[in-house]
Amino acid sequence: MKQPASSNVAAETIATYVNESRTVVASESLLGRQLGKVQNEGSLHYMMSKFKKALPGSDAEAFISYCSQEMSSSVCKNIASKTPLWREMRYGRITASKLYEASRCSTTEGSLVNAILGASKVKNNVAMERGIRLEKDVLKEVERKLRTKINRSGLILIPENPIFGASPDGISENAVFEVKCPVLREVI
Question: Cross-referenced InterPro entries, in alphabetical order (predicted)?
Fold first, then answer.
């Protein structure tokens, strides 16, 4: 899990976020705190700002190539779920939950783009709340039945495809788990 660590190294930097191996993945400046922002080296917004300065006038392919070179593997490793850093890192990325929709999108009104950019939010319904409530118990039961350890997962990114991300519910040595808890038996 990413934790803020106090920093007295520079007056400008007031918090540094590190991963499990104590690798810096983001830093928060005094100005950033006042604006409510963390400069994260893996966020697409931050990388776009750097890209525009480094290669003005370049195209989307050049941006993706730039991002894949700039993203360190420490940034890509398991960003804790449902944290401000997790939300920021998902912003502008096509996540696994939106991948199918993105591959089939033929509308021009922009609802998918709005969802990816965070302009629209899906409200949790009764079925979604049920799934959230049961997720831990389901993973424990799967662990028991498969006799394997399932680790909770946050956002996973890979530098080779920097615009994609995934937040699976769990990962074992040999499998990735996404828990679904349908209300109706017919759904199964």
Answer: PDDEXK-like_dom_sf, Restrct_endonuc-II-like, YqaJ_viral_recombinase
DSSP track, 51-75: HHHHSTT--HHHHHHHHHHH--HHH
Q: Helix, strand or coil for residue 161?
A: coil
**pLDDT digits 0-9 by tens, 87-129:** 888 888 998 888 888 888 887 777 788 777 776 777 888 888 9
Are residues 52 and 45 in contact, defined by beta-carbon separation less than 8 angstroms?
no
Q: Phi, psi (5° rounding) for residue 159?
A: -60, -30
Task: Give the rounded percent of residues in the chain with a pLDDT score beyond 90.
Answer: 19
Q: What pLDDT digit, counting tens, does each position of 48-92 carry?
A: 888 999 988 888 899 999 988 888 776 776 588 888 888 888 888
The band of 133, judged by pLDDT with boundaries at 50, 70 and 90, is very high
- Neighbouring residues of 116: CB distance < 8 A, sequence distance ≥ 6: 92, 93, 94, 95, 98, 102
3-class secondary-structure state, position 95: strand
Alpha-carbon distance of 187 to 130, in angstroms, equals 15
Q: Residue 85 has which token pair?
A: 């850093």
From residue 153, how far is each of 1, 68, 118, 126, 179 by CA, in Å?
10, 22, 21, 24, 12
- Domain spans of the chain, in order of start: 3-187
CATH number of 3-187: 3.90.320
